[in-house]
Amino acid sequence: MFNAMKALLVAVLGVLYSPLCFCELARKEILNHLLNSSRYDARIAPNYEEDRATNVTLQLYILSIDSINEIAMDLSMEVFLRQTWVDPRLKYEHLSNFSNLELDQRMMANVWVPDTYFPNEKEAHFHIVTVPNRLLHISRNGTVFYSIRLSLTLTCRMSLYNYPMDEQNCPIYIETYGYTVENVLFNWKSVNAVMVDDVEMPQFHFRKAPTITKCSRTFKYEATFTCLSTNLHLQRNIGYYMAQVFVPSILIVILSWVSFWIHVDAIPARISLGVLTVLTITTQSSGIRSSLPRVSYVKAIDVWNSVCLLFVFSALLEYAYINVQTRRHHKSASKDTLLTIQASNPLVKTIGLNPARRIDVRKTIGAREMDYMKMARAIDKVARFVFPMSFVIFNITFWIYYLFANNHE
Fold first, then answer.
1. SS3 sequence, 242-258?
2. Rounded Cα–Cα distance for residues 179 and 223 (Å)
3. What is the rounded CA–CA span in Å between residue 80 and residue 59?
4. How far apart are CA 288 and CA 381, in angstroms?
5. Which of 112-126, 220-234, 326-340 has the lowest mean pLDDT?
């Protein structure tokens, strides 16, 4: 009788756990078993009771870098944060042959996840359209894979000494907020820890691949928290600034030299040209400064604009000096004309002015008149050579220094 009941029980169990029924109910039953509140507590770290730290492996996948703001000194990006750890409480090797279990959004709250945050984050948000963009997979050996999509605005302290030929290193810090190193340890994935998608930025490009490091933070109450960091090495594209800043300012400086070939008596033309170039350089400099933070050091673009302004202003001052010499010339010519009129006057003899003396005075005035004109023309001729040569020397020095010699890493 006992053997018959035993055989019947085996037959019933065989029917209940046939492959057909197992395939239909196994995942649900396994999840109900694993996440049962009587045996699993999502509020406790996996190895908390064993008094050892849970190792969490991280990978960062950068989808896009939307903007880099020099004034606010931050960068905005969209990333996938992928975390992997082993939770022994979630092993189901003895229950099924399924390679992994994929959890629904509503079940993820029942699984423990690290309290990861970004210390240098200014603003961030999750993506929830059309559902929260996150996934959680559980492998047979208890390995948990957790991925989430984030949009971040991170602080990036920029050094603008070489702007716009600058290179920036923007760090990304990842840390636990509540768990110390006694409970959670972060490690970068051994291969492809930081991956960058086909990212295109209007003003920057990646100078080299991101570098990764491990770090730790200790606070006043002697608690040490695990930390990871990666640096994005960015270099500014100078093409925009060549087309919008450097080439136009070079042309403006060259335009100011045109006044050296204009006749010294063409006062309206030379004054208008000089004032126009000074105002144009000043306006251009103001537009550039409005898009940059008010830092206390001198940037490369400040040096460039200042020297260009100095050149166009010097060209204007050069004509101011030429104009003084011209006015002296006209004043001497007026005196000579007056003496000529006096010499032709018959009443001069009655005054007693010596004719020889009159001739000597006229010769002296004429010599001075020639000296003033020669000096004015000579200064114009010298300026035609000195100004271009000085500007070429400045350009050679400027580009060599800021592109090759100067390094403010």
1. HHHHHHHHHHHHHHHHH
2. 9
3. 8
4. 34
5. 326-340
